[in-house]
């Protein structure tokens, strides 16, 4: 593929690469739909997070196929996957790994590092908010820096590396809120709602018989990395960049907006803008376009921003929801 001096693909190469990527993405979507019925927006946003090279937090009550979606994506995308079931007694070493003492034939003893489940291309953190904040924080370094440090030694994680975490609503028993610093590491928060009537009818009919759909790998991890690189090379117009900046900055208090000052306790940092830029590119490619638009920014505002903001006590007392607030900010983009 030919690129310009700033790393952007020339027009012909961009079109050819985008067509191949779009065909692969369509195949992935079709294969996922064999196991996940309905929930198109959930599947789309989760895929967008992976295509953008990031992590996603899936939030919903138990029984909405969050775990099944993550397992299916790992298979279909050809990723080496591990799963961690988060529980109150889970320790950081259960995620990262631990050192054990070995003794050879001569009686000499030495430590050997046994890798934990974090050493995978796709890590499923199931019910992540069931574990203590100390254990949740064990994922911080891996999610941001793509390596872990154990006993003073730094070890790289496989590439690509993605964390797809599921979370139960905080109102449920036995849950701990995720630290703000860790929430910010998730590219998107994907809310999983109850399925529509026809989708639930299909679930009843197709998952209670003798045979269930068995998704198969349709691309490789190497091909996924190529698509992720292509997305980073897609051009973004100044209009879209300005819209991203306007949206992110308008969601912060003390920026000259009295309404935001009243409703927002703390807002998104620069990482939110980076997430919007990547996800807007991925969404454009997902829909067969070569460049993102302001509509992409609007569509992604809620999943990208909602876990990076907090409402003031006054806003909560007035019944304001974070979704309504973000929708109002996105509407200002025109």
CATH level-3 fold name of the largest domain: Rossmann fold
How many helices? The count is: 15
What Rg is obtained from the alpha carbons, in whole angstroms? 21 Å
Order of helices and strands: HHEHEHEEEHHEEEHEHHHHEHHEHH
- Kindly report the name of the CATH homologous superfamily of the largest domain: P-loop containing nucleotide triphosphate hydrolases
Distance between the termini: 36 Å
Specify the CATH architecture of the largest domain.
Answer: 3-Layer(aba) Sandwich
Low-confidence stretches: none
Strand content of the residues, in percent? Answer: 15-25%
The helix content is 40-55%
* SS elements, strand count: 11
Shape: globular
Structural account:
Residues 260-324 form the ChlI/MoxR AAA lid domain. The chain has 15 helices and eleven strands. By secondary structure, it is of the alpha/beta class. It folds into two domains: 1-208 and 215-232, P-loop containing nucleotide triphosphate hydrolases (Rossmann fold, 3-Layer(aba) Sandwich), CATH 3.40.50; 234-334, Magnesium chelatase subunit I, C-Terminal domain (Helicase, Ruva Protein, domain 3), CATH 1.10.8.80. The radius of gyration is 21 Å and the shape is globular.
């Amino acid at each position: 593929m030919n690129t310009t001096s700033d790393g952007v693909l020339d027009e012909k190469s961009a079109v050819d690469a985008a067509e191949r990527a779009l065909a692969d993405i369509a195949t992935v979507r079709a294969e996922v739909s064999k196991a996940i019925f309905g929930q198109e927006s959930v599947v789309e946003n989760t895929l967008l997070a992976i295509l953008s090279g990031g992590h996603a937090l899936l939030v919903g009550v138990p029984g909405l196929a969050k775990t099944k979606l993550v397992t299916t994506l790992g298979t279909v995308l050809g990723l080496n996957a591990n799963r961690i079931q988060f529980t109150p007694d889970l320790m950081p070493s259960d995620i990262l790994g631990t050192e054990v003492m070995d003794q050879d034939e001569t009686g000499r003893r030495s430590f050997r590092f046994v890798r934990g489940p974090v050493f995978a291309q796709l890590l499923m953190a199931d019910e992540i908010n069931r574990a203590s904040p100390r254990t949740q924080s064990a994922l911080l370094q891996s999610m941001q820096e793509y390596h872990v440090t154990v006993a003073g030694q730094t070890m790289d994680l496989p590439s690509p590396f993605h964390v797809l975490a599921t979370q139960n609503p905080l109102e449920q028993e036995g849950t701990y809120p995720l630290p703000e610093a860790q929430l910010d590491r998730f590219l998107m928060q994907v809310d999983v709602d109850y399925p529509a009537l026809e989708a639930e009818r299909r679930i009843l009919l197709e998952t209670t018989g003798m045979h269930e759909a068995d998704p198969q790998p349709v691309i490789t991890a190497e091909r996924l990395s190529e698509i992720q690189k292509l997305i980073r090379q897609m051009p973004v117009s100044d209009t879209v960049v300005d819209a991203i900046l306007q949206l992110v900055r308008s969601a912060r208090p003390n920026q000259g907006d009295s309404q935001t000052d009243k409703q927002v306790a703390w807002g998104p940092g620069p990482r939110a803008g980076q997430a919007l830029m990547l996800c807007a590119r991925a969404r454009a490619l997902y829909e067969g376009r070569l460049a993102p638009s302001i509509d992409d920014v609007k569509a992604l505002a809620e999943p990208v921003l909602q876990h990076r903001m907090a409402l003031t006590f006054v806003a909560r007392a007035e019944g304001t929801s974070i979704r309504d607030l973000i929708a109002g900010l996105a509407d200002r983009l025109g």
